[in-house]
Design brief:
Order of helices and strands: EEHEEHHEEEHEEHHHHHEEEHHEEEEEH
Distance between the termini: 29 Å
Structural class: alpha/beta
Radius of gyration: 22 Å
Largest sheet: 7 strands, mixed
Number of strands: 17
Number of helices: 12
CATH topology of the largest domain: Alkaline Phosphatase, subunit A
Shape: globular
C-alpha cells in the first residue's frame, strides 16, 4: 500500500483560507499511533452527535413491540430503516429533570434544558437562570483541546439569552440544549454560511455585515485559493487517499454552491418570511436542515471537532410542515387529545424528521475511514425529551443510538430498560467510550448496561 506519512494537522492554505484535511491513510498512523480498531487497520477518532426533535413523538409509530435483534421496524424507524443494523433502539429511559417537580407548567422548556444535562432547570424568566453542564460540554472540556473547535452547536432557529417563552421559563431554556456551565448556555449557529466560515476561514473572527457583504461579493471558492496546495498533496498520496481527497473537495465545492444559492434566496421576498432571516439561511426548511447536517459531517470528517449538537427547532415549536401536507402547527397538533387526525399529522411530522435523519446517516456512511465509515466511528443520539406530546410525559422516551462508536457499540437491537432508568446513564456510557470518564452527570445512577463493544 502506498503511504507517504503526512501530519494529521496538515491543512491546505490560501489567502485567508484554511482547508483541513479529511481522515486519510497517509495521516492516520502518525496521529493515532497505528492503533488497531475493530473496523480497520488504523483507529480513527470517535465522535458524538446529539440531534433533538421537539414536542415528543407519536409513540405507537415509534416503539417496537419485540426486543433484541428480532425487533420490527415501526413506521417512524422505517424512515431510516436502511440503518437497522446500525441502530440501537433504547426504551424505558426517563428524564426526571424535565418533570415539574412542583414547578407547574413548562414541560417544553424543561425537556430541552434537561435533555443533555439531566438537571432540573430553575423556573425563571429573568437573568438568574440555573441548569447544569451538558454531556457534550463535559466531553469538550476533556478532549476539546485535541481539535480546532471544542464542540459545534447547530440548529434552525436562533438561540435566545433571555425572554419569556414557556409558562414562566426563560427562552434561554427553550432554545439551548448545550450548557457550558449551569448559568451559561452555548448559543447555536443557525447560518450555514457562518458555520462554513468557521470551518474553512483562516480567521475565526466575525465580520460586520458590511465587511461580510464586501467579502462575499469578491470572494472566490475556498478551493480556488488552496488548489495549488491540493494538487501538490494529491500527487503525494496513494490511490485510496487520492479518491478520498477528490470526494472531499467535490463535497466542499457542492456545499459552497448550495450556500451561495441560499444566500441569494435569503435576500428575496423577505416580506414572505415569518421572522428575520440571517444571511445565508435557506428559505426552505429541508435545505436548511441538510446544510447544517453537512456542516456537522464536514467538521467530523476534517477532525475540526468530535462533538456536536443539532436542534431541528426550538422547544414547543409551532411551525407547520407543508412539506408533508401538514398545515397545522406542530405544537398545536401535539396536543391531540386522542384525535386520530391530529395523531396522523404528528406521525407525518415525526416521519419527516426521521427522513432527514436518514439523509444525515447516509452521508455519514458514505465517508470512508480505513475499512469503516464515519458512522462506524460515531455515536449519534436522536430523540426527544418528551414522550407523548399530549401527555407531556418524560419517561419511556423516544431515543435511538446510531453508529458503532469505533467498535464500542453493538447495534442492530431494541433494548428495553427498567422503568425510570435515567437517560443520563446512556451519556455516562458514551463518555466512557470517548475516554472521558466522569462519576456522575445530572441524575445518573450508573452506566447503561448492554450496549456491547
Amino acid at each position: 500500500m502506498h503511504h507517504n506519512h503526512i501530519n494529521r494537522r496538515t491543512v491546505l492554505r490560501g489567502l485567508g483560507t484554511m482547508l483541513a484535511l479529511p481522515w486519510l491513510e497517509a495521516t492516520s498512523t502518525q496521529v493515532f499511533g497505528g492503533a488497531k480498531s475493530n473496523l480497520g487497520s488504523v483507529a480513527a477518532p470517535k465522535r458524538m452527535a446529539f440531534l433533538y426533535v421537539p414536542n415528543g413523538m407519536h409513540m405507537d409509530d415509534w416503539t417496537p413491540k419485540k426486543e433484541g435483534r428480532d425487533f420490527e421496524m415501526t413506521p417512524i424507524l422505517n424512515e431510516f430503516g436502511g440503518f437497522r443494523n446500525e441502530m440501537t433502539v433504547l426504551s424505558g429511559l426517563a428524564l426526571n429533570g424535565a418533570r415539574a417537580l412542583g414547578d407547574g407548567g413548562g414541560d417544553h422548556a424543561r425537556s430541552v434544558a434537561a435533555f443533555l444535562t439531566g438537571a432540573h432547570p430553575r423556573k425563571t424568566d429573568g437573568a438568574n437562570i440555573m441548569n447544569g453542564v451538558s454531556v457534550d460540554q463535559v466531553a469538550a472540556r476533556k478532549i476539546g483541546n485535541l481539535t480546532r473547535l471544542p464542540s459545534l452547536e447547530l440548529g434552525t432557529e436562533a438561540s435566545a439569552p433571555a425572554g419569556k417563552c414557556d409558562s414562566g421559563y426563560s427562552c434561554a431554556y427553550t432554545s439551548n440544549m448545550s450548557w457550558r456551565t449551569a448559568t451559561s448556555p452555548v448559543a447555536k449557529e443557525v447560518d450555514p454560511s457562518l458555520v462554513f466560515d468557521r470551518l474553512f476561514s483562516g480567521s475565526a473572527q466575525k465580520l460586520s455585515p458590511s465587511q461580510l457583504a464586501s467579502r462575499n461579493k469578491n470572494r472566490k471558492s475556498v478551493l480556488d485559493y488552496v488548489m495549488e496546495d491540493a494538487k501538490s498533496l494529491h500527487r503525494a498520496l496513494g490511490a485510496n487517499d487520492q479518491r478520498k481527497l477528490d470526494e472531499y473537495l467535490f463535497a466542499v465545492r457542492e456545499i459552497e454552491n448550495r450556500i451561495s444559492r441560499a444566500d441569494k434566496l435569503s435576500h428575496a421576498d423577505l416580506d414572505m418570511n415569518d421572522f428575520e432571516r440571517p444571511e445565508g439561511v435557506p428559505r426552505e426548511y429541508e435545505e436548511h436542515v441538510k446544510l447544517q447536517m453537512d456542516m456537522m459531517i464536514l467538521a467530523f470528517q476534517t477532525d475540526a471537532t468530535r462533538i456536536s449538537t443539532f436542534m431541528f427547532s426550538n422547544a414547543g415549536s409551532n411551525r407547520s410542515y407543508r412539506e408533508v401536507e401538514v398545515p397545522e402547527g406542530h405544537h398545536d397538533l401535539s396536543h391531540h387529545g386522542g384525535n386520530k387526525d391530529k395523531q396522523v399529522g404528528i406521525s407525518k411530522i415525526n416521519r419527516y424528521h426521521a427522513r432527514l435523519l436518514n439523509y444525515f446517516l447516509t452521508k455519514m456512511s458514505s465517508v470512508k475511514e480505513g475499512d469503516g465509515t464515519l458512522l462506524d466511528n460515531s455515536m449519534v443520539v436522536y430523540g426527544s425529551g418528551i414522550g407523548d406530546g399530549d401527555r407531556h410525559n418524560h419517561e419511556d422516551l423516544p431515543i435511538v443510538l446510531l453508529g458503532r462508536g469505533g467498535g464500542a457499540i453493538t447495534p442492530g437491537r431494541h433494548i428495553r430498560y427498567d422503568r425510570e432508568t435515567p437517560l443520563t446513564n446512556l451519556y455516562l456510557s458514551m463518555l466512557d467510550r470517548m475516554d472521558v470518564s466522569v462519576d456522575r452527570l445530572g441524575d445518573s445512577n450508573g452506566r447503561l448496561a448492554g450496549l456491547g463493544g
